[in-house]
Amino acid sequence: MSWRDERLGLTELREPTTNRRKLRSAPYRLHRPHLPVPHVPEPPPEPQGTHISRLYPELLALIFERLPVRDRGRAAQVCRAWRDAADRRSVWRGVEAALHLRRPAPVLFASLARRGVRKLQVLSLRRGLRDAVAALPGLESLSLSGCYSVTDAALASAFAAELPALRRLDLSLCKQVTDSSLGRIAQSLKNLEELELGGCCNITDTGLLLIAWGLRKLRHLNLRSCWHVNDAGIAHLCGGGEARGTPELEYLGLQDCQRLTDEALKHAATGLPKLKSINLSFCVAVTDAGLRHLARLPYLEDVNLRACDGISDAGLAHLAESGRLRSLDVSFCDKVGDEALSHATLGLSGLRSLSLSACRLTDEGLERVARLSQLETLNLGQCTKVTDRGLRALGDGLLNLRAIDLYGCTCITPQGLDHIVKLPRLSILNLGLWHVR
């Protein structure tokens, strides 16, 4: 080392003797020409350009949002980057998870919560309902339709705590559910807006009292085939007696509630001011007098009176006084005939859907129907007295018609159908055994 290096402060760092000894004793690579050298594959080159693996997670999420629901789940299994993108809440917005709950599945429930799933349909139930509800605090819709094993005890456990986000509950065909469950629902689901109880044949007027006491925000209630419900139960919903009522109700389904009479409609006319749609099909005790009360409802648009044997032409005259109906079904009301349509043309000119299947109609009645120029759907199945003359009138007057049912109209011919086929907006012509809706 020169004196210049020493002046600049540079010194030579020598390895200690021990290190040199280690190097001398270090193993050397053996030369083995008779053995093949293993081939180490080179790593794949990093994708360049616009390869999908280089997309930002936000773009992947936008792509996944447009996939079918089943494919979104499959995409999450491709790789970690896709899984993270597929777990974004925007990918699963509005999706309803359909599950078989045979046992508790905490990993599955945590995955649903992470993805922000707010709608749950239980296809079959053995265990795990309480855990599923607890794991999804933001649950907005829960369907248990057709789960015959649902009991009052299961619902009491699932709804032990309040669920302020739940807006829709479907218990249709849960035949073991009784009024006890409605009490629990009224306590824990105070923000409920839609309740389906069709086929819950153990529900009584007491259950409706509990609904009227706790579910003040209810807008949709279906009581189809709740055979124990009578006029007193409807009075509870309308705020009669000790009940607070359900003043926000817009739809009331009473199909096949055969104990109801005109008194129930009297209560509805005064206690359900926002009612827009009511289904009274197969309520055989309802008569024309009840329709006089129903016509007072200021927002009523849809009335289903299918197979109500007590309804006649006079009842439709009462409904025509309202002048606001958009949909009317009087199919299989064998006392309804041509005279009813004279009232309809005067007061129900805004009708969009009219069902007259199996009514006592003739061509004279169809000539009156032809004056309902805004009609889009018309059901005339099994009107055996209708001929080509009536179809000619319909073809001339119903230029907005989109669907018509002529099943069982035995007196019409292909020449008569020509008047219907030429309608400019017609898309459905039914001559078979089904009902146009």
Automatic annotation (TrEMBL):
Keyword Transmembrane helix: no
Record-level GO cellular component terms: SCF ubiquitin ligase complex
SUPFAM superfamilies from the UniProt entry: F-box domain, RNI-like
InterPro entries, sorted: F-box-like_dom_sf, F-box_dom, FBXL15_LRR, Leu-rich_rpt, Leu-rich_rpt_Cys-con_subtyp, LRR_dom_sf
Keywords: Ubl conjugation pathway
Short name of any one Pfam family annotated for the protein: DUF7885
GO biological-process terms attached to the record: SCF-dependent proteasomal ubiquitin-dependent protein catabolic process
The name this protein goes by in its record: F-box domain-containing protein
Organism listed in the record: Spodoptera exigua
